[in-house]
Amino acid sequence: MSEAGAALAARLRERELSAAPDALNLLESTTASDREQARALLGALSPAALGSEAAGHVIGVTGPPGAGKSTLLGALLTLWRRNGRTVAILAVDPSSRRSGGSLLGDRARIEFDPRDRGVLIRSSAAGEQLGGLAWPTRAAAQALAVAFDIVVIETVGVGQAETDVAEATDTVLVVVQPASGDVLQFLKAGIMEIPDVLAVTKSDLGAPAMRTKRDLSAALRSLGSSAPVLIVSSLPPASGIEELADALQQHRAGLDVTARRVQARRASALAEYARERGESGIRMLGGRHAVQRLLAAQDPGADVPALVGALERDAQER
Amino acid sequence: MSGDHSPRLPERDRPWMMRTYAGHSTAKASNELYRRNLAKGQTGLSVAFDLPTQTGYDPDDELARGEVGKVGVPISHRGDMEALMDGIPLAEMNTSMTINATAAWLLALYIVAAEQQGAEQTQLQGTTQNDILKEFLARGTYAFGPAPSLRLVADMIAYTVEHVPKWNPINICSYHLQEAGATPVQEIAYAMSNAIAVLDATRERLGDRTDELMGRVFGRISFFVNAGVRFIEEHAKLRAMSVLWEEIGRERYGVTDAKQLRFRYGVQVNSLGLTEAQPENNVQRIVLEALAVTLGRDARARAIQLPAWNEALGLPRPWDQQWSLRIQQVLAYETDILEYPDIFEGSHVMDGLVSELLDGARAEIAIVAEHGGAIEAVPYMKAAMVEAHRERIQRIESGEQVVVGQNRFTETEDSPLTADGDGGILVVDPAVEAQQIESVRRWRAERDQAAVDAALGELARVASLTESGRENLMIPTIAAARAGATTGEWAATLRQVFGTYRAPTGVGEAAQAQAGAQLGELRERVAALGERLGRRPKLLVGKPGLDGHSNGAEQIAVRARDSGMDVVYEGIRLTPAQIAASARQEGVHVIGLSILSGSHRALIPAVIGALHDAGVSAPVVVGGIIPDQDVESLKQAGVAAVYTPKDFDITRIVSDIVGLVESGADGTPANGTASNGTATNGARSEGVPARDAS
Asked: CATH 3.40.50.300: does it fit domain A54-255?
C-alpha cells in the first residue's frame, strides 16, 4: 500500500515535493507496518543522517479563533511564492470529540494557485489533544522541512497551544485581533509562552489596533522580551505583510536552530514516551529528570522515534 | 344587504403583477421567450441570469466552464442586453432582475439599452435584487467582500433615488433564507437585520442630505419573500413583517409618510419543499403556497412568480412555466379572492400567530444587533441556519415531518408527465457555451479598446477612493457599460481593488446529529475502517463550478463528520484543478461533489480528468439535480454513485460513501460498488436553488 519510507525519504531529500502527500499519509498511519516505514522515513531524514538540521524554516502560527490567521497566511503565502520560496502549511483543526470525526475547513480560506507545485496545504484534526499538536504534525514538520523552504504549523487557541507549537517550530507567530484582551492577560499571567513575533490584524481598525500594539509591546517589555509587534492587514489594500515576513526571517537568522530543535526533539520524545507508557513508565526510568538526562546523553541528531527507542531499551534493561 | 355593511369591497382589487422567472441559452432565445410569455398574459418580466453573469465572469473564463446559459441568460455587454430587450418597450415595462453582486453593472447595461430605445432613466421601472448579505448567508453568488459589496449597494440606492426614481434598487430577500433552512422567525429577523444594515450604510452615504432623502430611500426598499406549504403560519409571517417594517421606519429612521412606511413585497413561493418523487404533487403545494401570499388583503404580494412543478428534476420548459402562470391567473381572475377586505381582520388565531412571530423575531433581531449588526453576524446567522436545516432534514428522515410521496404514501403509478424522451425538463444545447465564447471574443475585437481602457481606469480610480464623501460608483459603471466593457472586465477591475473573498461556510459550528441506531452503527463501521486504514477515513466535499447553493454539500459534510470521518470541506466555486490539488495534498479516501446548476455534464468529467492527472484514485460520488438520463453517462465517466433530491436520507448516503472506502480498503475496485440513487442524497433535498429567483 504505502510507498516504502526510505524511498519517500530519498525523494524528499532531492526536494521532490510531489512525495510529500504520500509521506504525510505514512506519518499519520497507525498500522504496525506503516509505523515501521514511518520510522525508516524519519530516520533517513534525521539530522544524524543528513549531517545537519533540515534547512527549512518551521513557523508556528497560532492565536484565538477569528483573529484572521488563515487570511494572513494566504497573504504571506502569496509573498513567499512571489519570492520563489516553497511552502508547506499544516493546518490543525479542533476536532469533534464524541464521534471522533472532524470538519477541516481552513484550506478554503487560503488562496493559492492550484497548479502551483510549490505549495502544499494539509489539514488534520487535533484529535484527543485539543489545543495541542498531534504527534504526526510534529513528525510531518520535521520531514517536510527537508524538502520545503518554509513549513507552517497553523493551530487555533491561546495558552497550551503556544507551548506545544514552540516545541515543534523555530519561530512562533501569534496573531491577535485588535482589542482582544485574552492574549494580553495570558501573557501577563504567564499562562502562555512568549511568542517570537506578534501580528495585530485588521489594521483598518486604526486606533484600536494601535492601542493593542502598545499594550502588547508594554507587556512584552515588562516580561523582558523584545519580540516585535507588527500591525498587518491582509485585506486589500494589504499592508505590513512584507515587514512581517522580514520579522519572521530575522528571528530565524538570530536563532541557534540546532539548539532549539534538539530541545524540541527531546521534549517530543518525552511526550511520546509518556503517551505510550504513562507516568509509571517514566517512574520506571527514575522520574522526569532522569529521563531528560538520558535523552541529553543521546546523539543530538537523533530523530524522535530513535530517542523513544532508546528510552524503551533502557526501560527494558531495568 | 349592501352599502355600509357589505362584506365586499366596493370595487374588485387589481391583480398583483404576474411574472415568470425566465431566461436561458442566449439573449436572443430569451427575448423570444419573454415575448411569448407577455402574449400569454404575463404582466412583468423577471430575468434569470446565468451564473457567470451573476458572479462577474465572461463566458471564456475558466470558472464559467459548463455554466454558460444554464440557469439563466448570459449577458456579457450592452449588445447582449439590447438583444434581450429587443422589441420590448422599456419605458413601459416593469422588469425584475435577479442580480446581486453585479447588480450595479446589469442596471447600467439596462439603462444603456433603454437609452438606445430612446427611454429616459426617469421612466424605468423595475427591481434589482441586490441583497448581497443573503448571498453570503444562503445563495453564494457574491463577488466581493461584505464591505465593498455594501458600498456598491449604497451607491446604487443613492444614485437611483435621484436619477431612476421609479426603480426599486434593492429587494431584501427572505426567500433564500427559507430555502437555506431558516425557520419563520429566523426568516423575519435576518431579513429585517439585513435591511437595517443596508439602510444604515445608505444613511451614512447620504451624509448631510439624509433628512431630505431618507424617507424616499425607505419607501424604495422592497422585499422578496418566500412562502412554504404551512400557509396559515406563512401568512402570519407576512403580517408580522409588515408590522416590524413600519416600526423600524418610524423608530430607527424617523419616517412618517404612511406610503413610504408600507411593507411592499414580491414573492416566489417555496422550492425547498418541492419533491423529485411524484413531482406532480408539487402543483398542489404551489397553489397552497400562493394562497399564503394572497389570502389576506393587508399583507398581499405586489408581484408573484411561481416555480414550476418539475424544478426538482431540472430546468422547467416553457410549457411547465405556463402552467404556473395559469395558476396565478385562475387565482386572480376566477376565484373571489380579490373581492374582499382583509379576511383575517379580527381573527384571534391570526393575531396570536402574528404576535408569537413578532416576539421571536424581535429577540433574534436583538441577538444580531449584539453581534454588531447583520454584516458582523453573518457567521452567526449562517451557523444558525445550517443548524435549522439539519434539524429539518432529521425530521423528514425520521418521518416526524410528512412529505407526501417522499417519506409517506410512496407507492405510485408511472407518471405520464415524465415519460417523454427529454424526461420532462429543458436541456440547454451544449453548443451555446462555445457560441457565447466566440461572441464575446468578437465583441472585444470589434469595440473601441482605448475607450474601454479609459472607462475601466476611471472605474478603478473611483473604486480605490476610501475617504468619506467619495464619488458614486454608478457613474463610471454606466460609462463603462456605454463604452462596451464586458461583465468579466467590470468585475475583474473591482476585484483588483477590493480583493477576492470567500464566505464563511457555517458548517464548523453545526451541532452533532442525534445518535440514532443507524448513525451509531455507522460510527462503529467508520472506527473499524479507521483501524484497518491506519488513519480515519478522510472525505473531500466540494462544489465545482459557480453554483453557490451549498446546503446539500454542507449537510453531507456535517453528517460525515458525525459518523467519525475527517471531512475536508472546501466550500463553493472550485475549479477542477483546485479539487484535484486538494484531493492529492489532503490524501483523501473518497470525494463528494455537489452540483445543482445543470453543469454536471461538462464539469464532472473535467474534475475526473484533473484527478486522474494528479494521480488521485479515490472514488467520486456526485449529488445534485441530475436528470435520470445523465446518471449513466456520469457513471461511465468514472463516477461511483449519483444522488438526487429523492435521496433524502443523509445517513444512508454517508453510509454508502463509507462503503466505497471499505471496498477500496478490501482491495476490490471501488467504482460501481455503491448503490446509486437508491439511497439518499444530501447534495440536495430541495427544489431549485440554482434558479431561485427574484
From this structure: yes
- For A100, the closest chain B residue by CA position comes to B564
Return the SS3 of B275.
coil
Cell triple for residue B51? 451564473
Instruction: Choose among B497, B502, B581: nearest Cβ to A236.
Output: B497
Domain covering A1-52 assigned CATH 1.20.5 in the classification: yes
Interface contact A103-B500, CB threshold 8 A: no
**Set of cell numbers at residue B53:** 453573469
Nearest Cα neighbor of A135 from A120, A121, A157, A153 is A153
C-alpha span between B158 and B475 (Å, rounded): 11
The torsion angle over the Cα atoms of residues B681, B285, B130 and B598, rounded to 10 degrees, is 40
Q: Which residue of chain B comes nearest to A121, CA vs CA?
A: B585
ipTM: 0.90
A31 touches chain B (CB under 8 A): yes
Q: At what angle do helices B146-163 and B103-117 cross, to 10 degrees?
A: 30
Locate B487 and state its grid cell. Answer: 461583465
- The catalytic residue positions of B are 21, 175-176, 543, 547, 549
Q: What is the CA radius of gyration of chain A?
A: 20
d(CA B473, CA B469): 12
Statement: residue A190 has pLDDT above 90: no
Q: Where would I find the H helices in A169-206?
A: 181-188
CA distance A93 to A98: 15
For residue B39, count CB atoms less than 10 angstroms from its CB and return exposed for 0-12, middle for 13-18, buried for 19 or more.
exposed
Name, in order, each residue with C-beta under 8 angstroms of A33's C-beta and a sequence gap of 6 or more.
Answer: A2
Cα distance between residue B657 and residue A159, in whole Å: 38
Domain ranges, ordered by start, for chain A: 1-52, 54-255, 259-317
The answer to whether the CB atoms of A124 and B584 lie below 8 A apart is no
To the nearest 10 degrees (0 to 180), the angle between helices B103-117 and B474-483 is: 60
Residues 115-154 on A with a CB inside 8 Å of B are: 115, 120-125
- Residue B504: pLDDT band by 50, 70, 90 thresholds? low
Q: What is the pLDDT of residues B39-93, one digit of tens each?
A: 999 999 999 999 999 999 999 998 899 899 988 999 999 999 999 999 999 999 9
Measured CA distances, B9 to B262, B301, B329, B342, B344 (Å): 20, 18, 20, 10, 15
Domains, chain B: 17-397 (3.20.20.240), 517-689 (3.40.50.280)
B-chain residue closest to A115, CA distance: B577
Contact criterion met (CB below 8 Å) for B556 and B623:
yes
Residue B303 pLDDT class (50, 70, 90 cuts)? very high
Distance CA B175, CA B184 (A): 11
Count of other CB atoms within 10 angstroms of residue B325: 21
Higher pLDDT, A25 or B314: A25
Check CB contact under 8 Å for B561 and A103.
yes
Q: Smallest CA–CA separation between A190 and chain B, in Å?
A: 30
